[in-house]
Amino acid sequence: MKNISYRGFNASALTFESDAQFKKGDTVGFDENGDCCIAGEGSAFVGVCVSVRGKLITAQMEGFVEAPFSGDAPACGWSKLCSDGNGGVAVSEDDGVPLYRVIEVDTENSTVGFIL
Protein backbone atom coordinates (compact mmCIF):
# COMPACT_ATOMS: atom_id res chain seq x y z
CA MET A 1 0.00 0.00 0.00
CA LYS A 2 0.98 3.65 0.07
CA ASN A 3 3.11 5.47 2.63
CA ILE A 4 -0.09 6.90 4.14
CA SER A 5 -2.00 5.10 6.86
CA TYR A 6 -5.74 5.26 7.45
CA ARG A 7 -5.59 2.87 10.43
CA GLY A 8 -7.40 4.21 13.42
CA PHE A 9 -10.01 6.10 11.40
CA ASN A 10 -13.32 5.69 13.26
CA ALA A 11 -12.10 2.33 14.58
CA SER A 12 -14.28 0.44 17.04
CA ALA A 13 -14.12 -3.16 18.12
CA LEU A 14 -16.14 -5.70 20.10
CA THR A 15 -15.03 -8.86 21.87
CA PHE A 16 -16.96 -12.09 21.41
CA GLU A 17 -16.67 -15.62 22.74
CA SER A 18 -16.44 -18.23 20.01
CA ASP A 19 -15.60 -21.91 19.62
CA ALA A 20 -14.47 -21.25 16.02
CA GLN A 21 -10.74 -21.42 15.29
CA PHE A 22 -10.29 -17.75 14.37
CA LYS A 23 -7.03 -16.25 13.25
CA LYS A 24 -6.18 -12.59 12.95
CA GLY A 25 -7.62 -11.18 9.71
CA ASP A 26 -10.56 -13.61 9.38
CA THR A 27 -13.87 -12.09 8.38
CA VAL A 28 -16.42 -12.27 11.21
CA GLY A 29 -20.06 -13.25 10.89
CA PHE A 30 -22.88 -14.65 12.99
CA ASP A 31 -24.61 -17.98 12.59
CA GLU A 32 -28.36 -18.65 12.75
CA ASN A 33 -28.13 -18.87 16.58
CA GLY A 34 -26.48 -15.46 16.86
CA ASP A 35 -23.10 -16.95 17.73
CA CYS A 36 -19.94 -15.36 16.40
CA CYS A 37 -18.37 -17.41 13.60
CA ILE A 38 -15.93 -17.16 10.73
CA ALA A 39 -17.88 -15.83 7.74
CA GLY A 40 -18.27 -18.47 5.04
CA GLU A 41 -17.34 -18.14 1.40
CA GLY A 42 -19.61 -15.72 -0.44
CA SER A 43 -21.32 -14.50 2.72
CA ALA A 44 -21.66 -11.03 4.16
CA PHE A 45 -19.44 -10.19 7.13
CA VAL A 46 -19.74 -7.70 9.99
CA GLY A 47 -16.11 -7.17 10.89
CA VAL A 48 -12.53 -8.39 10.79
CA CYS A 49 -10.78 -10.32 13.56
CA VAL A 50 -7.95 -8.25 15.09
CA SER A 51 -7.13 -10.37 18.15
CA VAL A 52 -7.51 -13.95 19.40
CA ARG A 53 -7.12 -14.90 23.07
CA GLY A 54 -8.29 -18.47 23.58
CA LYS A 55 -12.06 -18.49 22.95
CA LEU A 56 -12.22 -14.67 22.94
CA ILE A 57 -11.91 -12.85 19.65
CA THR A 58 -11.90 -9.12 19.12
CA ALA A 59 -13.45 -7.95 15.88
CA GLN A 60 -13.03 -4.51 14.39
CA MET A 61 -16.58 -3.53 13.51
CA GLU A 62 -16.05 -0.02 12.10
CA GLY A 63 -13.24 1.96 10.59
CA PHE A 64 -10.48 1.32 8.08
CA VAL A 65 -9.19 -2.24 7.62
CA GLU A 66 -6.88 -3.98 5.19
CA ALA A 67 -7.54 -7.50 3.98
CA PRO A 68 -6.27 -9.85 1.31
CA PHE A 69 -8.59 -10.30 -1.65
CA SER A 70 -9.06 -13.21 -4.02
CA GLY A 71 -10.42 -13.18 -7.54
CA ASP A 72 -10.98 -9.89 -9.34
CA ALA A 73 -9.57 -6.76 -7.72
CA PRO A 74 -12.19 -4.57 -6.04
CA ALA A 75 -12.71 -1.11 -7.53
CA CYS A 76 -11.93 2.01 -5.51
CA GLY A 77 -15.11 3.76 -4.43
CA TRP A 78 -18.10 1.63 -3.49
CA SER A 79 -17.68 -2.13 -3.96
CA LYS A 80 -19.69 -5.14 -2.81
CA LEU A 81 -17.38 -7.33 -0.75
CA CYS A 82 -18.05 -10.75 0.75
CA SER A 83 -15.95 -13.24 2.66
CA ASP A 84 -13.81 -15.43 0.42
CA GLY A 85 -13.87 -18.21 3.03
CA ASN A 86 -10.06 -18.17 3.31
CA GLY A 87 -9.44 -15.23 5.64
CA GLY A 88 -9.96 -12.54 3.03
CA VAL A 89 -12.58 -10.85 0.91
CA ALA A 90 -13.83 -11.11 -2.66
CA VAL A 91 -15.95 -8.97 -4.98
CA SER A 92 -19.59 -10.06 -5.00
CA GLU A 93 -22.58 -9.47 -7.26
CA ASP A 94 -25.03 -10.73 -4.61
CA ASP A 95 -27.67 -8.14 -3.65
CA GLY A 96 -27.50 -9.38 -0.04
CA VAL A 97 -23.88 -8.28 0.32
CA PRO A 98 -23.24 -4.71 1.52
CA LEU A 99 -21.25 -2.03 -0.22
CA TYR A 100 -17.98 -0.94 1.35
CA ARG A 101 -15.96 2.22 0.68
CA VAL A 102 -12.76 0.96 -0.91
CA ILE A 103 -9.89 3.41 -0.37
CA GLU A 104 -6.87 1.43 -1.60
CA VAL A 105 -6.27 -1.55 -3.86
CA ASP A 106 -2.84 -3.15 -4.15
CA THR A 107 -3.02 -5.61 -7.05
CA GLU A 108 0.63 -6.61 -6.68
CA ASN A 109 0.06 -7.90 -3.14
CA SER A 110 -3.67 -8.68 -3.56
CA THR A 111 -4.74 -6.48 -0.64
CA VAL A 112 -7.57 -4.02 -0.27
CA GLY A 113 -8.13 -1.21 2.23
CA PHE A 114 -11.74 -0.31 2.96
CA ILE A 115 -14.05 1.28 5.51
CA LEU A 116 -16.32 -1.08 7.46
Using only C-alpha atoms, the radius of gyration works out to 13 Å
Within the largest sheet, what's the order of strands?
Answer: 1-5-4-2-3
N-end to C-end Cα span: 18 Å
What's the count of strands? 10
> Helical region count?
0
Largest sheet: 5 strands, antiparallel
What is the string of SSEs from the N terminus onward?
Answer: EEEEEEEEEE
The overall pLDDT average reads 92
Shape: globular
Strand content: over 45%
- Proportion in helices: under 10%
Summarize the structure.
The protein has no helices and 10 strands. With 116 residues, the protein is mainly β.
Structure write-up:
This protein has 116 residues and is mostly beta strands. The protein has strands at residues 12-17, 27-30, 36-38, 47-53, 56-62, 64-70, 77-83, 89-91, 99-106, 111-115. The relative contact order is 0.25. The model has no long low-confidence stretch (mean pLDDT 92).
